[in-house]
Design a protein that fits this description.
The protein has 120 residues and is an all-alpha fold. 72% of the residues lie in helices and 0% in strands. The longest helix has 29 residues, at 40-68. 8% of the residues are buried.
Amino acid sequence: MNPVIDVDALEKVNTEQHAQKKVVSVPKKKPTNELKKPNKSDVMVEVVDRYVKMKEKQAEEEKAKSNVFTISKCISAVQNMKELSHEERVKASKVFKIAENRETFLIWTAQDEESAIMWG
C-alpha cells in the first residue's frame, strides 16, 4: 500500500517552517577606504606635493620681487650718474646679474646717489 501524501499540507508546513526561520543579519562591512591605513608612500606624496606648492609660491614671489629691481632700471640709474666712467658703468652691469645686488643698488640710488657709487 502506498501512503497518500497530502501535497497541500506538506506545502503549508514548508511555508510555515520557512516563515519561522530567523533572518540572521550579517554586519555590513565598512568601505575599504575607511579601514585602510594610509600608506607611507601616500603620506610622502602628500608631503612632497605640499613642498612643491610652497616652492612654487616662493618662486612666484621672488620673480615678482625681481621684476621691481630690473637690470634695465639699474643700467638707467648708472647712465644717469655722470661721475662714472664708461669702464665703471660696464663693470657695474656685471654686478647687476644678482637680484640682491640690483635691489641694494636701486635702494641706495633712491636714497643717496653718492653712496650708491661707493657701494658698486
